Amino acid sequence: MSTSRRxxxxxxxxxxxxxxxxxxxxxxxxxxxxxNISEFSAVAKCDGAKGVISVTDKDPxxxxxxxxxxxxxxxxxEKIVGSxxxxxSREGVTVDFAEDWKADATYRVHVKAGNQxxxxxxxxxxxxxxACKSEETPxxxxxxxxxxxxxxxxxxxxxxxxxxxxxxxxxxxxxxxxPAGGGSNLAETGAGSNTGALVGIAAALVVAGGGVVFALxxxxxxxxx
Length: 225
Fold this sequence. Notes:
The chain is α+β, with helices and mostly antiparallel strands and 225 residues long. The chain has a domain of 90 residues: Immunoglobulin-like (Sandwich), CATH 2.60.40.10. It is 30% helix and 26% strand. A hairpin with a 2-residue loop joins β3 and β4. The longest helix is centred in the first third of the chain and has 31 residues.
């Protein structure tokens, strides 16, 4: 082979390698800029007392994508929660789907972005074991209305305790029994209140009688002499 032919063949090989490298580089760059399902994520959360399904698109190219959320039951779609379009960014763009989800429910999220993405976000979204609840404010105590107060029966007033009746006065001439332990009226026992005076008079009469008898005896003795 002449020198010119060897040089030409070498040039062709170099050109082919360079072309292949350029094609590979372009292919890799194109894949890097293409929208990918891995750039989408979804989660169930609470927005106050309301439940939402949030989907975030972190596609740096901003390819418009349509996101559709389905509620699943026994592995099949039961209903469509909603569908929204989103344009992602490197920082991420989030869209929320209002859904009063129940605990431990399953949702399928599908993404359609041109001819680049047409598939579900894996895995499916499973809601937390506790549903969203608002903080209940205790109700103020009910104030009775005037009609309620009027309808409430009044409590009966306590009747006064009757005072014991005083005994009727005993009729005149009737003897009133003395209380136990003594009394001033001793007619019922046979002794009156003048017993002491009577005893004194009797004693004086006995003494006087004795004096008279003594005098008579003495006079009789004088006469006999």
